[in-house]
Structure formats: structure tokens, C-alpha cells
Write a structure and sequence with these properties.
The protein has nine helices and five strands. By secondary structure, the chain is α+β, with helices and mostly antiparallel strands. The chain has two domains: 104 residues; 131 residues, no CATH class. Helix content is 49%, strand content 11%. Helix 5 runs antiparallel to helix 6, helix 6 packs parallel to helix 9 and helix 7 runs antiparallel to helix 8. Strand 1 and strand 2 form a beta hairpin.
């Protein structure tokens, strides 16, 4: 929630309205006239509307809007207290959040959920082997599809190796969906981990699907996925690795 008074909200409304009506630029200068140490009401020299419509603006209100991250300002010509009467100029600029604040009726929406939708931005929770082997590949060019191709292929190999490890499969010839069946199928090595047969078959279908649709495809030909597709795959593999670790 924005910490604004009614008058400060009306100032936001006035600023946005005048920018949209092209009476005011998003960047503007506010001139303050001082009498001794007291700043009188400020005015905007570039305002194109009628002077009688120029809203009352105070230094405090501008500071509050800045504290709420609705605009930024910089004192361009600071006031000299030794001068009895002198102008001070503030260089101000609206920032995009001021429009969102007004559109949302000053209700500050919680966007922290986006952090969970883009976990690659914080790799601290990633599987260690996945991070150690895939991230250095991408560090040389995160927008290069050929590097994502290598990272995706590596992630698929890690998943297959983890299936062997957690599933106690020593036969190196077991690969792909055959490997998944040995681990999650009927009489599979992890069958004792499931008390509900449908959950066991769900795991089998899930891992068989990812192996068949993605792992095999990237293992046998060049795919060169987009960064968005490659990132989504690696995030999903990370989840599958975590689920496997939970079954140890």
C-alpha cells in the first residue's frame, strides 16, 4: 500500500493527467521561491496548461512521492540560506510506477510471485550438479541457442544418471524409457517408496514423458532451443531431480 495522503494522491492524479494531455512532460523542473529559510509554493515553468490550473505543489509532497517510488528528483540549484530571497530548482521525472499506482487505485500489488516463475534468476536453490555443469556453459552467451542446446543436453544426461543412481540401476545399457520402467514400473526398484499404485504410475509416466519428448530428441539431433524454452526445460529438470532425491 502506498503511504499517501488524499492531497498527495490528487497530486499524482494531476501529474499523470497533464502528462497524458501533453500539458506537462514526464521530466520537468520545479522552481521554489524562498523567503529566508521557508520555501513557498513551487511552480513548473514548462507547464502548458492555464496557470490557474497549476496545482499547489510543496517540497514535502514531492519528497513523499519520491519515497513511494513514483518519481525521482534532484536538486539542481540548491538554495543559499545566506540569500534572503532566491529560487531553488528541482529536476523531477515521473517513473512508470506512478501510472500503475493510479491505475490500481494506489493499491500496491504483490509481484513477488514472479521470482518463483523465473527461478533461473536465483540459482541458489538449484541442484548442485545441474548448476555446476549447465550454468558455466550458458555463462559464455546466455542468448545463444547453440549454448542452450548444450545445456539442455547436459541436463538430460544428468537426469538419466540420477535415475540410475537413485533407482540403484547398475546396468549402463539401461537408458531412456526402459530405464524409467526399471525404476518406476511394476516391480521397479523404487516400488516400495509408493503406497498408492496410481502415484507410482504417475511418476513412471512423468519421467518417461520427459525422456521421450525431450531427452531423446536433444540426444540425437541439434535442437538449438530459444533461451525461454531452454530455461523452462532446465527448471523442470531441476524439479524432477528434487523429486528423485526425495525418494532416496
Amino acid at each position: 500500500m502506498y503511504n499517501l495522503t488524499y492531497g498527495q494522491k490528487k497530486l499524482v492524479e494531476w501529474l499523470v493527467s497533464n502528462v497524458k494531455n501533453e500539458y506537462l512532460n514526464e521530466s520537468f523542473f520545479i522552481h521554489w521561491k524562498y523567503t529566508g529559510l521557508i520555501a513557498e509554493v513551487g511552480w513548473i515553468s514548462s507547464y502548458k496548461g492555464l496557470q490557474k490550473d497549476l496545482r499547489t505543489i510543496t517540497q514535502h509532497s514531492i519528497k513523499v512521492l519520491a519515497e513511494n517510488k513514483l518519481l525521482i528528483y534532484k536538486v539542481k540549484s540548491p538554495h543559499d540560506p545566506a540569500s534572503f530571497s532566491k529560487n531553488e530548482v528541482w529536476d523531477c521525472a515521473l517513473i512508470p510506477d506512478i501510472y500503475n499506482a493510479l491505475d490500481n487505485n494506489f493499491i500496491c500489488t504483490d509481484t513477488s510471485f514472479s521470482d518463483y516463475l523465473t527461478p533461473l534468476t536465483d540459482p541458489s536453490g538449484f541442484d548442485d550438479e545441474l548448476a555446476d555443469r549447465c550454468f558455466p556453459i550458458l555463462a559464455t552467451g546466455g542468448s545463444d541457442p547453440t549454448l542452450w542446446d548444450s545445456a539442455v543436453r547436459t541436463a538430460g544426461v544428468i537426469l538419466e544418471e540420477r535415475l540410475r543412481d537413485v533407482g540403484n540401476i547398475s546396468d549402463p545399457n539401461q537408458t531412456g524409457q526402459s530405464l524409467v520402467s526399471k525404476v518406476f514400473g511394476k516391480n521397479g526398484t523404487l516400488e516400495s517408496k509408493f503406497s498408492v499404485p496410481s502415484e507410482q504410475s504417475g511418476y513412471r509416466d512423468l519421467y518417461a514423458g520427459i525422456v521421450g519428448a525431450f531427452r531423446n530428441r536433444s540426444a540425437h539431433r541439434l535442437v538449438d532451443p530459444s533461451p525461454e524454452e531452454g530455461g523452462a526445460f532446465i527448471v523442470f529438470v531441476n524439479l524432477l531431480l528434487k523429486k528423485l532425491e526425495d525418494l532416496r
